[in-house]
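Hi Q.,

Before the meeting this afternoon, I wanted you to have the NAP prediction in hand. No need to reply - just skim if you have a minute. The sequence and ligand are here:
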Amino acid sequence: MHHARNITPMTGNSAPTAISPSISVGIVGASGYTGGELARLLMDHPGVAHLQVASSHHAGKYLHALHPHLRPAFGRDPIRIVSPDDLAPCDVIFLAQRHGMSMGEIDRYARSAPRIIDLSADFRLRDPADYPRWYGHEHADPTRLATAVYGVPELHRAELPAAALISGAGCLATAAILGLRPLVATGLLDQAMPLIIEGKVGSSALGATPAPGSHHPERSHVVRAYAPTGHRHTAEIAQELHWPIANGSEPGGIAFSATAVELVRGVAITAHAFTREKLTDHDLWQIYRRAYRDEPFMRLVKERAGVYRYPEPKVLIGTNFCDIGFETDPQSHRVVIIAALDNLMKGAAGNALQALNCAMGWDETTGLRFTGLHPI
Ligand SMILES: NC(=O)c1ccc[n+]([C@@H]2O[C@H](COP(=O)([O-])OP(=O)(O)OC[C@H]3O[C@@H](n4cnc5c(N)ncnc54)[C@H](OP(=O)(O)O)[C@@H]3O)[C@@H](O)[C@H]2O)c1
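Predicted structure with the ligand bound:
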């Protein structure tokens, strides 16, 4: 696939930069949901001169046989899936495999590309000891783990250009961290009180492989608590918020619960944090505006009237936004934070592309400026 065009993307926050197709990109795990979303984004990205998609189980098929929305159009040739063994050397490889596969295969892919962006949890946690605790196995490559950057640009933008290994983030974790980080950073929270985070998540977060819980009669119409305690994303949230995990003897910590709800795409978190002094909504506006005013994908949603007064994943489908809302409880020192995103976009593939844009020095919004649909 070749793009013979130069475009000049514009953003509200940075000077326009001309991008010409210059890099060659591979996707491994192309049959999965995040692999398909990466292909959708990268096939039209102005900086991508050549795209290869690889799958261990579906080599030889056309990409659109697995992802019907990627059926060729506008004169574009159909994309044939190759085996990961047949990936030609390229500039960057996205690994969109199920958890546990990348850590043992990273050397192999690093020989083919100087930059890897891994969407799984294999390189998210800084401390190798967290892997036995949260994932039930030792980390296979602690040396390389030490070099990985947690690839959420809003958190680690400056580290991305030099990073050879960029890790994606958990979808629920991304919403929780981006929602809470400005407030935590003020130092105004009462550390003796827990950060209580209730996450709601749609079915595509569990991937394309069917399971008993994803069988339609079992999954449809659910509001199903599946991790009231012990959710693995707790570790990322603690790491990136610099907030302790509950340790059983001291008060405070992170109290995170996850519930599967009637959505295909979408994540929403409602978090409860407790401040030492009483804050007002005006204080929160100032805190969040200051933190996010230059962030193209972070929007504050807090309207006085109407149906969409707070963040709502329904209107974020296909977008790379993370919308944040908040309110102070007039009766207490409680602050409620609401954050919403599309798990396959800002929660996975969109964020990974934003990280690549950032690493390349391109406008971060390149290929990510879809604003959503309504009604949907
Ligand atoms: N879905 C989300 O919302 C989301 C959000 C954030 C992060 N992530 C992470 O991103 C990664 C990919 O997620 P996904 O939702 O795209 O997963 P997925 O739809 O289940 O697909 C992942 C890939 O893993 C491989 N795979 C699936 N089942 C397999 C099996 N039984 N044995 C061996 N390989 C198998 C397949 O690779 P081949 O194509 O090579 O056969 C598949 O393309 C995961 O590590 C996930 O934790 C997902």
